[in-house]
Design brief:
Blueprint lengths: L4 H23 L3 H66 L2 H13 L2 H16 L4 E7 L5 E6 L3 H4 L13 E8 L2 E12 L2 E10 L2 H8 L3 H4 L2 E7 L5 E4 L7 H11 L2 H8 L8 E3 L2 E7 L6 E6 L1 H10 L2 H40 L13 H43 L9 H13 L8 E9 L2 H7 L1 H18 L5 E6 L2 E7 L8 H12 L3 E3 L2 E3 L2 E9 L5 H25 L1
Antiparallel strand pairs: 1-2, 1-5, 3-4, 4-5, 6-7, 6-10, 8-9, 9-10, 11-13, 11-16, 12-13, 14-15
């Protein structure tokens, strides 16, 4: 049955309406959808072709790359963990080389007196405090009886631990499973004094540094995992190290099978020349560590094999870059009109981001971009003005605060720090970490017969004398030292050992006394003053006020001795 002219007209009418709808839809599509459509159209076909070409190439190369990477990582981890074990032995040698430790141990072996134990505890306690990740240090006598032990944490749990008996004359490493999943390392060595065996020393160390080596190769980056195979009781093997959560299901059966003696022997059967092998879908390689510590195992889960394979598809990136180039060429005409104003606005906002507020954009654009540029310039002008005002206010406030702090911490007459600030700095010095390696001393200075100067010449002359004395003391200060006026004619000096000078408080005291006894001219009169200086050495944990009192007492002792000598003469 043929179509009538009316039917053909209706069909053409529907096609015309559909065409108009498509044109209306396309005219309403923005720049971003048009660029996406162009990208899909130009890049999809060549991407598919290059993908299949690269697929055939990568399938042949993936296996070889995995095996090479396994060998490289296993050798690297094997070498690094062995270096960590060697470093533990070096730290053991450092501790055992302390002569006082060996002398005290031999003295205790001979006399059995408790003071020797206390000295041993202090020595190994100091050594333990200076070593990170060390749990404790124990000492045995030549009969392998435990003499003493000091540990950092978990005292109740560690009291039950006994260090292993020294089996040979060389250093030895031995695992200690404190808990089921908490291994530590015993590092042991014999102790000798004048070729006489006086016992052995034993360090218990956490696995923190070794765990750090294991975690250097993250599974989400390399696609490979590395763990330690550590010996446990009943000749069993335990897996130590964190498994990648992404591959935990794939690794579960493999790790469980490693507890089998047969699989463990198969992994290490080839020694240092062993090549990667396949077990339970895994590609694995093991290397035996030094000192019988265990084995390092590197393996690739099945999911990582697939990931590494797809990472070989490098030609896909080249095709993507090629397609992107075509898209950029096609979109250049559409983006050129908006690229210039957007770049100018981007540079202006970037300049504003780094702190510059005097930003101005040339108003040469069109339409909405011209309005946006004018609004931006007006906002920048206002921001620049207000920022300048704020900076001036902040600077004035800072100078005011600094002046107030200086007034609060400084003696107004002499310009030296006052007693309150000096005591704060003394307290900080005595309580700061690392004081044992920074010796310090305190000098307490008092002028002799200062009162007659005030009585004869007036308090103004006495103030001038104090200012001259303060200036001479301040001139003698070295880097790190501090001088303060405590009140009246009393001064204090805090002496610190510096990088360019040694701590010699007696020498500093002599120099201070030499400078202060030099004549000074006050109100056209030549005056000579003398001083008495007390000296005390500061120890970690000293109370600041007690240290000052001891220096004061020593000063009065010197003053009394000087008066006695003068009376005798």
């Amino acid at each position: 049955m043929g179509t009538t002219p009316d039917d053909r007209f209706q069909r053409r009418l529907r096609l015309q309406k559909l065409r108009c709808r498509v044109l209306d839809f396309w005219s309403g599509v923005g720049l971003r959808p048009r660029l996406i459509a162009a990208f899909l159209l130009v890049s999809l076909i060549p991407l598919v072709i290059l993908f299949f070409a690269q697929y055939q190439i990568s399938k042949r190369n993936t296996l070889h790359q995995i095996e090479s990477s396994l060998i490289q990582i296993a050798e690297g981890q094997h070498r690094r963990i062995n270096l960590e074990l060697q470093r533990l032995l070096e730290q053991l040698k450092l501790v055992s080389s302390r002569t006082q430790l060996r002398i005290s141990l031999r003295a205790y072996n001979q006399s059995g007196e408790h003071p020797h134990i206390e000295l041993l505890n202090r020595i190994i306690g100091d050594a333990l405090a200076s070593m990170e990740h060390f749990i404790g240090i124990w000492i045995r006598n030549p009969d392998d009886d435990l003499v003493t032990g000091v540990f950092n944490k978990d005292s109740d749990r560690l009291c039950a631990l006994n260090p292993p008996v020294q089996q040979a004359d060389d250093e030895q490493l031995q695992l200690q499973w404190v808990e089921e999943d908490d291994p530590c390392i015993w590092v042991s060595a014999p102790l000798y004094l004048e070729d006489e065996n006086i016992g052995s020393i034993h360090l218990l160390v956490t696995m923190t540094d070794i765990v750090a080596v294991l975690e250097d190769f993250r599974c989400d980056q390399s696609g490979m995992e590395n763990v330690l195979l550590l010996p446990a009781e009943n000749q069993k093997i335990k897996i130590f190290g964190s498994s990648c959560p992404v591959h935990s299901e794939a690794n579960h059966a493999f790790y469980r099978s490693l507890e089998s003696t047969d699989l463990y022997r198969a992994l290490i059967a080839g020694g240092e020349d062993l090549l990667p092998t396949y077990h339970h879908g895994q590609i694995a390689l093991a290397r035996k560590l030094s000192y019988g510590f265990g084995d390092v195992l590197v393996h690739v889960p099945p999911t990582s094999v697939a990931d590494i394979f797809w990472s070989q598809m490098r030609y896909l990136l080249l095709m993507t870059l090629f397609a992107l180039t075509l898209v950029i060429v096609m979109a250049f005409v559409l983006t050129r009109m908006i690229a210039r104003p957007l770049r100018a606005l981007t540079r202006a906002t970037s300049t504003l981001h780094i702190g510059q507020t005097d930003v101005h954009i040339k108003e040469r654009f069109w339409g909405e971009f011209a309005e946006l540029t004018q609004s931006f310039n007006r906002a920048m002008h206002t921001l620049s003005r207000r920022t300048g005002e704020l900076n001036r206010e902040v600077e004035a406030h800072r100078l005011s605060q600094k002046k107030l702090i200086d007034l609060a911490n400084t003696d107004t007459l002499t310009g030296l720090v006052n007693r309150r600030f000096f005591m704060e700095k003394l307290r900080e010095t005595l309580s700061s970490p690392g004081r044992e390696s920074q010796p310090a001393a305190l000098l307490y200075l008092d002028l002799d017969d200062f009162k007659p100067i005030n009585d004869k010449m007036g308090h103004e002359a006495g103030d001038l004398v104090l200012q001259v004395v303060a200036g001479r003391i301040d001139h003698l200060l070295r880097e790190g030292d501090m001088a303060a006026r405590l009140g009246g004619d009393e001064f204090a000096l805090l002496l610190m050992k510096g990088s360019n000078h040694h701590l010699d408080p007696d020498m500093v005291a002599r120099r201070v006394e030499e400078q202060l006894t030099m004549p000074m001219t006050i109100k056209n009169q030549v005056i000579t003053v003398e001083c008495s200086i007390g000296i005390v050495s500061l120890s970690p944990g000293d109370d600041p006020q007690d240290a000052l009192n001891r220096a004061d007492q020593d000063m009065y002792r010197v003053k009394h001795l000087r008066r006695t000598n003068k009376a005798g003469n």
